[in-house]
Amino acid sequence: MRSRPTSRLRPLATTAAALIALSAAAPAYAVELPPQDRGDLFLTVSGAENTWIRGVLLTCEPEPSGRHPHAAKACAAIERAGGDLDALPAESGICTKQYAPVTVSASGTYRGRPVGWHKTYDNACTMTYSTGDVFRF
What residues does each domain of the chain span? Predict the structure, then answer.
C-alpha cells in the first residue's frame, strides 16, 4: 500500500500549528537594542597619589544630561574645544603657587570618537581655571 502525500505532510502541519499557537500564547516582550552612542564621558578628579577621587558621568548628546551639576556649560565648553580637552577654553584668575597636584581624566566617547584623556595640574585652583565648568563638580 502506498502512502498518500498528504499523510506525510500531516506531522509537519501539526507541528506548525502547535508553534503558531504557542507563539500566540507567549507574552510579548520588547527587545532592547543597545543604546546609540550618546557621547557619555566619565570625568574624574583625584588628589596626589589618588588620596581622594570623585567622578561624574556627563552626557552631551542628544542633550546635556547626567549627574554633572553644570552639564550644559560643560558640554558647551567641550563643543567649543572641538572635543579636544587640551583645548578647553581657560578662564582667567589668580591662584597661589601651592603645590598640591590634582589629576583629571575623561574617558568615553564624544561625537562617536573615543576619548581617553588625563592631565595633572599643580593644584585645584589651576585645574579649575584651566578646565572651566568641565571638571567643576
Answer: 40-135
d(CA 27, CA 128): 53
The pTM (predicted TM-score) of the whole model is 0.69
Q: How far is CA 45 from CA 20, 42, 50, 57, 119, in A?
A: 57, 10, 9, 12, 10
Residues in the chain: 137
Cα 79 to its chain centre, rounded Å, is 16
Distance CA 85, CA 120 (A): 13
Fold entry, domain 40-135? Subtilisin Inhibitor (3.30.350)
The pLDDT of residue 37 is 52
Mean pLDDT, to the nearest integer, of 9-34?
A: 43
